[in-house]
Automatic annotation (TrEMBL):
The keyword Lipid metabolism does not apply. The gene is LOC115222738. InterPro entries: IF_conserved, IF_rod_dom, Lamin_tail_dom, Lamin_tail_dom_sf. GO terms for cellular component: intermediate filament; nuclear lamina. Keywords: Coiled coil, Intermediate filament. Residues 274-392 form the LTD domain. One of its GO terms (biological process) is heterochromatin formation. GO terms for molecular function: structural constituent of cytoskeleton. Residues 1-236 form the IF rod domain. Belongs to the intermediate filament family. This is 70 kDa neurofilament protein. It holds the Pfam family Filament.
Length: 392
């Protein structure tokens, strides 16, 4: 800002100098005009002197002629009247010539005097004006020089302040770099902790899924034993059941399969004998835990806090044998309000049960039917899958 102001002042000084030079040029031109007019006046004066000399010469010539004429007239006394006549005529002519010459000389002198006086006045006025402007410009130059010196002093102060601020900025930058290095090291440590915790979380989730698989297999075993003990004619016969959930098979499952095979070989026949394989996948924290063997309910679980908003999500079971697809749409956004495991009951079985009773699903269908149970979000993306494979 100070440099800009100094530049503006220097520009004004240059303008004043240019104006001063212009005025000096005008003054020089006026002086040249004065010299020219003086030379012209001197020429006119010389011309007037020459005319006056010529007039004197003509006067002398006329006087000489008059004397000659007088001498002739004095000799010739016979015509006295003519001498007086010519004397009078010559006197009148000389008088008229003298008056005309004097009038012209006076007019020329007055004109030259007036012109010279006006030009001299103009030159004096211009010179006085130029002197006043020169004095004003000198004062302005002094003021601008003083202001320039003040601005230079302020500029030096500003430069000193800038140098001080620059040193402070460098110190702050070095401090910032040190703090940034410390923060980066802490960030690296936190990243390591986060990676370690994520690995532990994945291990815990895997362990939880294994436990859920074991729980599902145990419930299936219990249901199968209950059917066998009750001796129902329409029980779910799993003559060669070997249930594998996600590659997990318990010792009790193997024992149950052997017992059922022995029972079938001893003469007990069921309507269907076969093998059920269940695979589960999930792309989020909500997964499908199990389907009740008789199709009373489907159980879903939540493995994180806060709970996932399931509003407008759909639970769909599609059958490979061409049966009609059953679909339940969640209307509540807080399905896992009190429990992390929720059963979605068919309307045929869930009037007095805990969990959610579906208004659109009468029953979910038996377990020993090849099918896919999927959980889809509001954008119809698959978030969890329970795939039931049956071979009989």
């Amino acid at each position: 800002m100070l440099r800009r102001k100094v530049q503006e002042l220097e520009k004004q000084l240059a303008d004043w100098k240019a104006r001063h030079g212009h005025l000096e040029g005008q003054l020089h031109q006026v002086r040249l005009d004065l010299q020219e007019e003086t030379a012209q006046r001197m020429g006119e004066t010389n011309r007037a002197n020459s005319l006056e000399d010529e007039l004197n010469f003509l006067r002398e010539v006329s006087d000489a002629e008059i004397k000659e004429y007088r001498a002739l007239l004095s000799k010739d006394n016979s015509i006295p009247d003519m001498r007086e006549y010519w004397t009078t005529e010559l006197g009148n002519c000389l008088k008229e010539i003298r008056q005309e010459f004097e009038g012209q000389l006076e007019g020329m002198s007055a004109s030259m005097e007036a012109r010279y006086q006006s030009e001299l006045n103009e030159m004096r006025l211009g010179a006085s004006k130029g002197n006043a402007e020169t004095a004003h410009m000198s004062e302005e130059n002094k003021r601008l020089r003083s202001q320039k010196n003040d601005l230079e002093a302020k500029l030096l102060d500003c430069q000193a302040q800038i140098a001080q601020l620059t040193s402070q900025l460098r110190a702050l930058q070095s401090e910032f770099q040190s703090v940034s290095a410390d923060l980066e090291s802490e960030k690296s440590e936190h990243r390591g902790d986060v990676d370690r915790l994520n690995a532990e979380l994945e291990a815990m989730i895997k362990e939880l899924r294994d436990l859920m698989d074991a729980k599902l297999s145990m419930e299936l075993e219990i249901a199968a034993y209950r059917k066998l003990l009750e001796g129902e004619e329409n029980r779910l016969s799993l003559g060669g059941v070997v249930q594998s959930i996600g590659g997990f098979q318990s010792h009790s499952e193997e024992a149950l399969a052997n017992a059922l095979q022995n029972r079938a070989s001893s003469g007990f026949h069921t309507p269907e004998t076969g093998k059920i394989t269940i695979n589960r996948t999930a792309s989020g924290t909500v997964s499908i835990a199990e389907v009740e063997p008789n199709g009373k309910y489907v159980q879903i679980t939540e493995s994180s806090k806060p709970s996932t908003n399931l509003k407008n999500w759909k639970l769909v079971r599609t059958f490979d044998d061409g049966r009609a697809t059953v679909t339940h749409v969640f209307k509540d956004n807080n399905v896992f309000a009190t429990e992390k495991e929720v059963k979605i009951w068919g309307s045929k079985f869930g009037n007095t049960k805990d969990g959610v009773v579906s208004s659109s699903v009468n029953e979910w269908g038996p377990l020993n039917v090849a099918s896919r149970i999927t959980l889809r979000d509001e954008n119809d993306r698959e978030r969890a899958l329970l795939h039931v494979k049956y071979s009989g």
